[in-house]
Amino acid sequence: MSDINKEAISVLNDLIETSIDGEKGFHTAAEDIKNPEIKAYLLSRSSECKTAVAELQAEVRTLGGDPADSSTVAGGAHRLWVELKAALTGKSDEAVLNEVETGEDHALKAYKEASQKATEKNLPVSVTSLIQRQLQGVQANHDKVKALRDTVRAANK
Q: What are the structural domains, with CATH classification, of the chain?
């Protein structure tokens, strides 16, 4: 296997772990949200993260690698923190959305770093285009979660 493929697989496996974190995080958050529209949005995001994981794993296989299939230690710790904080704050929709935004901040950073690395290392076009497409989705999700949180916050004042 070429060094470029090894590098691409490493970058993609990091994103797989991040996306699994997202899938689990959105699902956990949806369980605590009271607003049915926001709950439905979070569940749809969980499903979209699962699709992103499958796309990333398929690309890793195409490159001859073994795809990651678990979340990160940090992601698990974050979910525990979300659950603890939600319990302490009465699981208000605003508190849950604050934590979801924190998770999306992490995902956005991971995707931006992966995109930069893919460009710097001149990774295959299939890899860079997949990262770029998913990065756009992560950015849109981040912005939507922030807007939802701001709307809930304004309604609570």
A: 3-155 (1.20.1260.10)
